[in-house]
């Protein structure tokens, strides 16, 4: 299958490496490939520059957001939350139309300092904003509630734990669930929250996730919904 991973940060790199290791064709999308490859500084989280990662994964093309989105049959959004609509706008509505768009971004607003706040929140979500802005895309919010190393290696967290999916299109959620299963998520660990409006809840887990990170001093944890089962 052909995937476009929009985003050159640690999340995009992690998912790209996993998809490639599973035998998929993957292209990474960025604003300006030359500028991205020319960066020599680590990012804000201390991750090595993209070029250093790319040297180890040079079989994965780096293209503009639009070129990558045109290539992908499925598109993963791993861009900065406050910039996601810009990035997807650059990808182009026509290149997203009819495709499953897996939205992993969180609308974290660092403009008021730490800890970040959510914007939008409560009565809206980034997942909904993406679906509204690109009505022909089949948006599924998922994987945003854990560190990226766990996204692709759920067994790294001992015991049972969960991943959520939100979206309007049942077939798109089914396809994403299959993708998650291929990453190692047991089928029973995937909780379908409902329509894209439920992305509000998934995104609003971020404040508690951030406090857990602060309290525990590491990111090697995830949410487990004890007793989760669906009533008839
Ligand atoms: P990030 O630094 O949040 O985002 C990097 C990407 O955002 C880059 O591809 C960058 O484009 C793009 N971007 C930045 N400013 C832009 C602008 N003005 N216009 C268009 N695109 C712009 O990367 P990350 O740390 O990998 O996180 C990715 C997303 O995943 C975030 O939304 C984050 O909240 C979410 N998330 C992260 C984790 C985690 O483990 N870190 C877990 C769950 C969810 P260029 O490539 O052109 O620089």
Describe it for me?
- With 232 residues, the protein is of the alpha/beta class.
- The chain has a single domain (2-216), classed as Rossmann fold.
- It has eleven helices and ten strands.
- The strands form two sheets. Strands 3-2-1-4-5-8-9-10 form an eight-stranded mixed β-sheet, with helices on both faces.
- Helix 4 packs across helix 5 (84-91).
- The N and C termini lie far apart (35 Å).
- The mean pLDDT is 98.
- The chain binds NADP nicotinamide-adenine-dinucleotide phosphate.
- NADP nicotinamide-adenine-dinucleotide phosphate binds at residues 7-12, 30-31, 36, 43, 78-81, 83, 86-87, 104-106, 108, 144, 147-148.
- NADP nicotinamide-adenine-dinucleotide phosphate binds next to helix 1 and helix 5.
Descriptive terms for the model:
232 residues; alpha/beta; Rossmann fold; eight-stranded mixed sheet; two-stranded antiparallel sheet; 10 strands; binds NADP nicotinamide-adenine-dinucleotide phosphate
Layout: helices, strands, pairs:
Elements: E1 2-6, H1 10-21, E2 25-30, H2 33-38, H3 50-56, E3 62-64, H4 65-71, E4 74-77, H5 84-91, H6 93-96, E5 100-103, E6 108-109, E7 117-118, H7 126-133, E8 138-142, H8 148-151, E9 163-167, H9 170-183, E10 190-194, H10 199-203, H11 206-216
Parallel strand pairs: 1-2, 1-4, 2-3, 4-5, 5-8, 9-10
Antiparallel strand pairs: 6-7, 8-9
């Amino acid at each position: 299958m052909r995937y476009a991973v929009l985003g050159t940060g640690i999340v995009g790199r992690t998912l790209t490496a996993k998809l490639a290791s599973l035998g998929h064709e993957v292209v990474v999308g960025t604003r300006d490939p030359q500028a991205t490859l020319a960066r020599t500084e680590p990012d804000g989280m201390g991750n090595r520059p993209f070029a250093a990662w790319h040297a180890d994964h040079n079989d994965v093309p780096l293209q503009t957001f639009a070129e990558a989105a045109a290539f992908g049959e499925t598109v993963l959004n791993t861009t900065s939350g406050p910039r996601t609509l810009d990035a997807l706008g650059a990808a182009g509505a026509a290149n997203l139309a009819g495709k499953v768009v897996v939205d992993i971004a969180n609308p974290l607003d660092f403009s008021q300092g730490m800890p970040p706040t959510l914007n939008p929140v409560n009565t809206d979500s980034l997942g909904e904003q993406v679906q509204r802005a690109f009505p022909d895309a089949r948006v599924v919010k998922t994987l945003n509630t854990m560190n990226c190393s766990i996204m692709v290696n759920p067994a790294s967290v001992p015991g049972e734990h969960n991943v959520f999916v939100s979206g309007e299109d049942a077939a798109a959620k089914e396809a994403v669930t299959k993708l998650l299963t291929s990453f190692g998520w047991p089928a029973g660990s995937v909780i379908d929250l409902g329509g894209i409006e439920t992305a509000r809840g998934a995104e609003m887990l971020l404040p508690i996730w951030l406090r857990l990170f602060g309290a525990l001093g590491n990111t090697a944890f995830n949410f487990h919904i004890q007793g989760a089962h669906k009533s008839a």
